[in-house]
Structure formats: structure tokens, C-alpha cells
Design brief:
Length: 420
């Protein structure tokens, strides 16, 4: 239970300039990837968020030397002292991406014993495709006592994923980067953070080709050398800020982002009647007229991202007309809409589809955060609502958004903390 709640007094248009932080889902892949290296690495543009701090603790527990300068967003990791290949459950249960330690430690030590991962409760989250990939590379994988153990001397192989999986693609890329010979990943995920991880591995002397397409070829390298690398900006934070600007009919320019990563969201905002202007590394969002309802179906990249479905469906609660939102990636990603019923939203949910009838006004109410992106969605709901919204369990939002309250306040939002 968090000892504070967030209070948001809504209906204030956000205005001004803000800068997006480094990508969470990239950072959580690139940090474990340093374990593949034989020398120290410097990572820049890391977001100062809970998941990054947890990974730093995990690397320290393994014997690495880690320093994080949260002002300059720089982490220095020296993996040479790593003596352990075991990560206990008490550390892994704090986040989903702790399962990347399996691929990274397997590559480094030929053995990994990692507790089951935690992460957001957004549905059943199997990792059979990760295990299938490790087995295909020659690892023996066993499970028991809350631990997953993978062991073996790895060799290149062809892995055909039954479905595109971000985590599976990243984990098998990590394992394959030092395996003997060529690994080919078919039906691989194409998200920008997969390209970023490939770029990082290549910056250490790795050989990864095809990232960003559905076929990735990895030639294993026995040694990887030091690298100084900056991770890409967070496309989900960028999208959340774009939606927040639209939700308040504000005029906001988001700097430091990559507009081409945002095309699915930009297209939907334009379809709703929001003005979106792309610049080299910035996006400006302004109102033009009333928001129209639109239909959304989440898909793998470059389709509409599931991580933005929650903030976007919050926005649609005040659009003119009826929207249909279909979630195809995770089965429990509508909990924020149930909370928003208390704020006057008109929503009906049946299995993987939410039917949203836009209302003229939402009103502040007490609501509870159930997962990271639900938290972002409820912040957006609060920004749109008349009166004051009380958001309980807001700590979950800090897992993935750096200084979100400070950023929104800077844009004029009335958002504050109060003890509970
Ligand atoms: N799946 C399987 N078997 C597997 C792996 C995945 O059936 O072995 C299924 C999942 O159940 C899901 C689908 O495949 O239905 C896609 O899952 P994916 O593996 O792509 O998701 P993930 O790696 O668990 C990452 C992000 C999520 C993001 C998804 C989809 C990280 C740490 N997490 O999760 O981010 O929603 O990809 O883009 O990168 C978030 O940031 O809030 C978040 C949940």
C-alpha cells in the first residue's frame, strides 16, 4: 500500500514544452546485456525509474560494479566481478523484465538460475517461447521451487516463434549473441527497443542483422568489448504525453522523441481531430475541434501498441460518439475503464473488447491504480475530469514514468501528493 495518493484537479489545458526520458523497455533489455561484455560499459539516457533501480540491484547482487548518476541519466556497469549466476525470487518478482537475466547469464556463464518474474497483472504472461528458444540453442531448461534454471553450452540454431513476442525475441537474442555459430530468429518482434538492443550488441562487437524485421540473424561472438551507448527515447511516455495534451485540449511540444516510432498513435489522433505536427525530434499536439470517436485494435509494432491502449481508451471516454477498443495482446488490460465508471464514463466490456460511449463530462472520484499503464490512463482521466480525482496506489506509475508529476506540473497541470 502506498503511503500517498495523487490529487488531480482537471480541465486545465496543458501548454508548453517537455522532454521525453529514455525508454523503459529498452533500458531493461540493454542493462542485462552488459553482462555479455568482458569490459565495463557506460549507458546514457537511462530513465530514473523503479525498474532501472531494481536491475541495478540485481547486477550488484551478482557481483558487478554499478553506479547510476540519476541527474545525468548515466549508468556505468563493470561486469568483470560477476561470480554468481543466480538471481533469487525476492529480486526477480519486482519486475517483468528480470527474465532477461536468463538469456544474459546463460550467455555469460553457461548457466542461469532465475526466480519467476513479477510485473504488471495484465493477464496470463507465459514465457514458453523464451524457453523454446533457449532449448533450441542447446540449453536444458528446468523449473522448480519458483526458479527457472537454464544450463548448457549454446550453439546457433533457427528459432521460429509461434507468435511475435518482444520478451522472447530479446531473451533469445541475448542468449544467441555469444552462442557458437549463426542463430536465425523467425517471426521475431519488430519493436524499436529490439532494434536498440541489436544496435547496443553491435556496438560491443556483436553481429546482429535484420532487427526491426521479422527475421533476425545473430552470429555469436566469443568476446564482446566495452561500449558507450545511449538508449532511445521512450515511445510509450511520448505517446502518453501526446494523449495527455489531447485530453486537456492543450498545446504541447514533446522534445527528444522519435516521431516515426509514434505513427500508429499519430494516425489515430489525427483521425480523432487532433492536430499533430512532427518535427525532426519533436512532436507538437494541438486541438482543432471536438474529438471524434475512433476504433482501436492493439497489435504488435508497427500496429497500435497495447501499452498505449489504456491511456488512449481513457481519452476516448470523452470523445463524441461510440468507440470500440479491442485488446489482442493481453487479456486484462481494461481495469482502468472499470475505475473510470466511477468518474462518469460509459463503458461496456465484453471479453477483449470495450465499447465506449463518449460523455460530455467526467467528474473527479477516488480511483485505484491496478497496473503501470492503467495508472497513466487514470492520470489522463483526472486531467480531463471536472473537479478533483484522487488516485490511490500511484507508486506503480513510478515503475515506468520518470518524474511524471513534475513534467505535468511544468505543463500547467494541478497534480499533487497527499499522505493517506
Ligand atoms: N507470449 C506467449 N509466450 C511467450 C511470450 C509471450 O504466449 O513466451 C504472449 C503474451 O502472453 C502476449 C504476447 O505473446 O499475449 C506478447 O507478449 P510479449 O512477449 O511481446 O510481451 P512482454 O515481453 O511480456 C513487453 C513489454 C510490455 C508490452 C509488451 C507488448 C517489457 C519489459 N514489457 O512485454 O510492456 O506491453 O511487450 O508490447 O518490455 C509495459 O511497459 O507496461 C508493458 C507491459
Amino acid at each position: 500500500m502506498d503511503d500517498y495518493k495523487l490529487l488531480i484537479t482537471g480541465e486545465i489545458p496543458l501548454t508548453g514544452d517537455t522532454t521525453v526520458s529514455g525508454g523503459k523497455n529498452t533500458a531493461v533489455a540493454v542493462i542485462p546485456a552488459v553482462l555479455l561484455c568482458d569490459e565495463p560499459c557506460v549507458l546514457d539516457n537511462l530513465p530514473d525509474i523503479e525498474d532501472v533501480r531494481v536491475l541495478s540491484d540485481i547486477l550488484l547482487s551478482l557481483g558487478a560494479t554499478v553506479t547510476f548518476d540519476s541527474v545525468n541519466k548515466r549508468m556505468t556497469i563493470d561486469p568483470r566481478g560477476v561470480t554468481s549466476c543466480t538471481v533469487p525470487y525476492k529480486l526477480t518478482q519486482k519486475m517483468r523484465a528480470s527474465y532477461y537475466l536468463l538469456g544474459a547469464l546463460l550467455a555469460r556463464c553457461g548457466e542461469a538460475n532465475v526466480g519467476y518474474p513479477g510485473g504488471c497483472a495484465i493477464g496470463n504472461r507465459p514465457f514458453d517461447q523464451h524457453i523454446k528458444g533457449f532449448q533450441s540453442l542447446g540449453a536444458e531448461v528446468t523449473e522448480g521451487g519458483g526458479m527457472i534454471c537454464a544450463k548448457g553450452s549454446l550453439h546457433g540454431s533457427t528459432v521460429f516463434f509461434d507468435r511475435a513476442t518482444v520478451g522472447g525475441t530479446i531473451n533469445v537474442m541475448l542468449a544467441a549473441a555469444k552462442a557458437k555459430g549463426l542463430t536465425v530468429l523467425c517471426n521475431a518482434a519488430r519493436e524499436p527497443h529490439i532494434v536498440d538492443l541489436a544496435n547496443f550488441l553491435n556496438s560491443m562487437g556483436g553481429s546482429v542483422k535484420g532487427a526491426g524485421t521479422d527475421t533476425i540473424r545473430i552470429k555469436g561472438m566469443p568476446h564482446l568489448h566495452q561500449s558507450h551507448y545511449a538508449v532511445i527515447p521512450d515511445q510509450i511516455e511520448t505517446g502518453t504525453l501526446m494523449i495527455a495534451a489531447a485530453a486537456t485540449k492543450g498545446d504541447v511540444t514533446i522534445h527528444g522523441c522519435i516521431p516515426t516510432h509514434m505513427e500508429a498513435l499519430t494516425a489515430k489522433l489525427l483521425e480523432m481531430g487532433v492536430s499533430v505536427t512532427d518535427m525532426d525530434d519533436a512532436i507538437r499536439v494541438r486541438p482543432i475541434g471536438p474529438h471524434r470517436a475512433v476504433n482501436i485494435k492493439t497489435q504488435e509494432y508497427p500496429g497500435f501498441p497495447t501499452d498505449l491502449q489504456q491511456p488512449m481508451s481513457a481519452l476516448l471516454c470523452k470523445a463524441q460518439g461510440n468507440s470500440m477498443v479491442t485488446e489482442t495482446i493481453f487479456e486484462s488490460r481494461f481495469k482502468h475503464l472499470n475505475e473510470m465508471l466511477r468518474m462518469g464514463a460509459h463503458v461496456r466490456i465484453a471479453e477483449q473488447t470495450a465499447w465506449i460511449e463518449g460523455v460530455q463530462e467526467l467528474h473527479g472520484a477516488p480511483v485505484t491504480v491496478t497496473d503501470l499503464r492503467a495508472g497513466a490512463a487514470l492520470v489522463i482521466a483526472g486531467l480531463m475530469a471536472a473537479g478533483t480525482t484522487e488516485i490511490y496506489e500511484p507508486g506503480l506509475i513510478e515503475r515506468g514514468y520518470e518524474h511524471i508529476e513534475r513534467k505535468l506540473r511544468h505543463l500547467g497541470a494541478n497534480i499533487r501528493r497527499e499522505p493517506v
